[in-house]
Amino acid sequence: MTANVGIYIGSDNKLEFRDGLDLYKPTSTQALIKVESSGINPADIKHGRFGLNEYIAGYELAGVVLEAGSSSEWKPGDVICGSNATNKHKPWAHGAHQAFAVAENGHMWDRVPPQVPLSHAAGTTIVLRTAADAMFNTFRLPLPQGTAEPQPAVHGAILIWGGATQVGVAAIQLARAAGLSTIYATASPQRHAKLRQLGATEVFDYRDEHVVENIQRALNKSGQDLKYVFDTVVSSGDVSSTAQCVALKSRCEVVYACTIPVFEDTRWNMVVASRGHDFPEPRGPFKAQPEREVVLQRAVASALAEYGKSYIVPNVRVLSKADEVIDAMYASANGQTGFEKIAIQHPLLG
């Protein structure tokens, strides 16, 4: 076993490369993973605003189980991807951006099918679960049946505001797999063609001052009622994204979902990546909902099984040098990484 190296986030939310990290010994309910790849998320740094720091950074990873405790869900040789639950006192062994990490029983872990590249699997879990919480728990769309069986059509239209975000990209694909035929999204014009390839019916420029009227016109022409709205951005400013979404008219009741709290409007339902554990402040509190967690588990397993057919992670860029990784993590937190998912190849080169 080689030395453990990784990226540490300090109390000031500054990142640094560290070597000589502990080599963890799994307990009975843990598995020791040789991390092959980990996925960069804005939350890697942004969560530090809420005191989630002073540990090895990162949440999502993919790798091979080296050693498993007597009661672990996994066994040596298993290839898995996922994340441990988020909390303010995260053990260093839970950090994704290091060469060796630990997977806890009952957290967000899945087996990686052979057709899924580990650099893609490493950035799948949190994004996919967040989108699935909107599609299948909040909107109660039917879980996809896979490409072997045609999905029954679901009537009504969905608007995904922020379709080019990682969560938005996942949501478009899940909506299509669930049987929705009218899928509208907003994004910058250069992303429109790709989002249509992924399943969007029509894509609108969110910067256009007439964007709401354009979407309304398309809805009226389609003959479909707007039934679902998912705001993956929740932007502020003179005219917020949530205000633009609720300005759209529909003949039926609309269900609204969002990725961060909208305290001023109780119509909005915040979605999260895990329903298996209590979710603390500042975005909660939410109590664990085991029945909803089962839905998320099934959604992830289905998407991974159908990877390359009905679900993909587009535009994956892989980095392996520590200084490039740190720069990319800052850029991700600042919303500067564009339409791509950045994965880290381990072990990092210092």
TrEMBL record:
Domain Enoyl reductase (ER), first and last residues per copy: 10-344
InterPro entries referenced in this protein's UniProt entry, alphabetically: ADH-like_C, ADH-like_N, ER, GroES-like_sf, NAD(P)-bd_dom_sf, Trans-enoyl_RdTase-like
Keyword presence, Oxidoreductase: yes
Domain of life: Eukaryota
Pfam families reported for this sequence: ADH_N, ADH_zinc_N
Zinc-finger listed as a keyword: no
GO molecular function terms noted in the UniProt entry: oxidoreductase activity, acting on NAD(P)H
Keywords: Oxidoreductase
Family, per entry: Belongs to the zinc-containing alcohol dehydrogenase family.
Protein name: Enoyl LovC
Organism: Cyphellophora attinorum
